[in-house]
Amino acid sequence: MSQKLKLPHKILCVAYVATSIDGRIARSGNSGTDWTSAEDRKFFQNALAQMDAVIVGRNTYEVAKTKLNRRNTFVLTSKAKLEQKGSVIFLNPAKHNLKKLLASKNYKRVAILGGPQVYNFCLQNKMLDELFVTIEPYVFTSGVPMFSGNKFKKYNFVLKSVKKLNNRGTILLNYQYAG
Amino acid sequence: MSQKLKLPHKILCVAYVATSIDGRIARSGNSGTDWTSAEDRKFFQNALAQMDAVIVGRNTYEVAKTKLNRRNTFVLTSKAKLEQKGSVIFLNPAKHNLKKLLASKNYKRVAILGGPQVYNFCLQNKMLDELFVTIEPYVFTSGVPMFSGNKFKKYNFVLKSVKKLNNRGTILLNYQYAG
């Protein structure tokens, strides 16, 4: 057996974000994304069908609980101890190793669905390999930002593709993490 | 003379924004945009050459004073009384009518160059007809947001064009205000 085959399998982590032109992803922490286009929702559902599990924060979980309970879902929270309810695992990533947990389940493709602290956590911990950003043609001027970090950092990405999703001007950008 | 010709001339106001993927336009209020690509700077300089005047906020003015002093520049500030220094006019838009002032100078094409409060002011006051957004392939996770409004609003835009500016993945989006 070659050296290569002995390595633990790589988990591909892909973040999905729907945003306004000005980088806002929601009105507030507990509001949904009812402003996204039908075309984006279709893309997103098709993409999720290819994923083994999803990672979300507590707010995102509360907003989309019914759907997320049907998936292999990891809910990152500062409060909970490690706890499993059906297919949903609640964990504090400061206390439990999320990467090891994903690897132990043998998941190969994992979707990161936000919110901003979860996107930031995954990026900081080199768990954000790819990024799909859907830009809907709105400006909100206020609301929840895409990422919320404590300090300004310059994470590099490379643009892989740009796709127009409809005539109105929803576009889908696909980036790859570049360090 | 037809009714149409009697109308005052329309001033076209075009906003230019360079942003990270996550909608951040600067590290802080008094930092520049040294992270933008050469291709964006070239586009921006060519675009500015077509404009009669520019509108900026106090912070943006301080960061780019040397260049802005050579243009017909309107600096929006909450502090100053109406004051002219060379080609630069300082005004408090809550006290003086910016639109009337632009019209009195017979300017036809005006560039809005930020920061976030100035973009927001122009959008709120129906003075943002067109928007050019350059997205550089970075995530900053923190920093100055593109627009800073007091409340969440849904301003509609229509995407006119998408252009890749370089191989790395800088893209230029052109939107038209749609109410």
Structure overview:
- Two copies of one chain form a homodimer.
- Chain A is of the alpha/beta class.
- In chain A, 23% of the residues lie in helices and 32% in strands.
- Chain A contains six helices and twelve strands.
- In chain A, the strands form two sheets. Chain A has a nine-stranded mixed sheet, with helices on both faces. In chain A, strands 2-10 form a two-stranded antiparallel ribbon.
- In chain A, a hairpin with a 6-residue loop joins strand 11 (155-164) and strand 12.
- The model of chain A is unreliable at 1-6 (pLDDT under 50).
- The A-B interface holds A 19, 21-24, 27-28, 35, 120, 123, 131, 133, 135, 137-143, 145-160, 162, 164, 168-171, 173, 175, 178 and B 19, 21-24, 27-28, 35, 120, 123, 131, 133, 135, 137-143, 145-160, 162, 164, 168-171, 173, 175, 178.
- Strand 11 of chain A pairs antiparallel with strand 9 (138-139) of chain B.
Can you summarize this structure?
By secondary structure, chain A is α/β, with parallel strands linked by helices.
Radius of gyration of chain A: 16 Å
In helices, the fraction of residues of chain A equals: 10-25%
Strand content of chain A: 25-35%
Greatest interface? A-B, 45 and 45 residues
Taken from the alpha-carbon principal axes, the silhouette of chain A is globular
Could you list the spans of chain A in which at least 5 consecutive residues all have pLDDT below 50?
A: 1-6
Instruction: Tell me which oligomeric state these chains represent.
Output: homodimer
Could you give the order of the helices and strands of chain A?
Answer: HEEHEHHEEEHEHEEEEE
Output the strand order for the largest sheet of chain A.
5-6-4-3-7-1-8-12-11
Measure the end-to-end span of chain A: 31 Å
Task: Give me the number of helical elements of chain A.
Answer: 6
Structural class of chain A: alpha/beta
Main β-sheet of chain A, in a few words?
A: 9 strands, mixed
How many E strands of chain A?
12
Instruction: Look at the structure and give the mean pLDDT of chain A.
Output: 93
